[in-house]
Specification:
CATH architecture: 3-Layer(aba) Sandwich
Oligomer: single chain
Distance between the termini: 22 Å
CATH superfamily: Vaccinia Virus protein VP39
Number of helices: 8
CATH class: Alpha Beta
Largest sheet: 7 strands, mixed
Helix content: 25-40%
CATH topology: Rossmann fold
Radius of gyration: 17 Å
Strand content: 15-25%
């Protein structure tokens, strides 16, 4: 479940490297939750899948594992992320089941075929006009195809007293209720669920927290914060499954 899947960096000086590491850590820490979500989807054996805003491949590889006969088209606006994804596919012997597409979906809409399943994790809230994007996704899907939308409620929390993050004006659609938007775009929403994640302190949680907190607080404060004994990762995701 990629939180920053559209490939837009938000770093300060370390942008691209940080972004890729966050995506890789996200894949590692949330692998079990991602697998549960994919199992829950109302689709049996999709052969053609699009991972929209694939990042470095968290969703792509989870989908390939769950559906061993499927091929995935991974779409992202970051060439760096797609290069990393392709390298991982090669290392895992999956290169023949992965196709990558470099595209800014707010500008040019690529030819994505007629997929049975579109996985959009952490990507739709980055779109300038998500309602238009949803209509395009509806047109793209095969008949009776399924769109899975996974979105986070806010930025991850690392300490018990931490307040939820303030609304980010740069991302006005983050935290939106996608159910009505999906219906307006012509979909039938077949399911919605919210997943609360709480992962105790580990080396991966520390690395994840340090990158996020360095952006929010600066390097010195982040160094101090990750040494706290009550550090853990808390986040919440909502998933919608919608059928064409």
């Amino acid at each position: 479940m990629s939180e920053h899947g559209h490939g837009h960096g938000h770093g300060h000086g370390h942008g691209h490297d940080d972004q890729a590491e966050i995506l890789d850590l996200d894949a590692e820490l949330l692998a079990g939750h991602t697998a549960d979500v994919i199992d829950w989807l109302p689709t049996k054996n999709p052969r053609q899948i699009v991972d929209l805003g694939s990042g470095t491949g968290a969703g792509t590889f989870a989908l390939l594992t769950r559906f061993p006969e499927a091929h995935v088209t991974a779409v992202d606006s970051s060439l760096d992320h797609l290069n990393r994804l392709r390298a991982k596919a090669g290392e895992r012997g999956l290169a023949d089941r992965v196709h990558t597409v470099l595209a800014d979906l707010d500008a040019d809409w690529p030819d994505l075929g007629s997929p049975d399943l579109i996985w959009a994790s952490g990507s739709l809230h980055h779109m300038a006009a998500p309602d238009r994007t949803l209509r395009r996704l509806h047109d793209t899907l095969a008949r009776n195809g399924v769109l899975a939308v996974v979105e986070m409620a806010g930025m991850p929390q690392f300490f018990p007293e931490q307040a939820p993050d303030a609304h980010d004006e740069r991302l006005p659609h983050r935290g939106a209720d996608w159910g009505p938007k999906l219906t307006d775009a012509g979909f039938t929403v077949e399911g919605e669920r919210t997943i609360s994640v709480h992962i105790e302190r580990s080396e991966a949680v520390e690395r994840y927290a340090h990158i996020v907190l360095r952006r929010q607080l600066g390097p010195e404060a982040a160094d101090k914060a990750v040494r706290r004994e009550d550090l853990s990762l808390r986040t919440e995701r909502t998933v919608w499954a919608a059928r064409k």
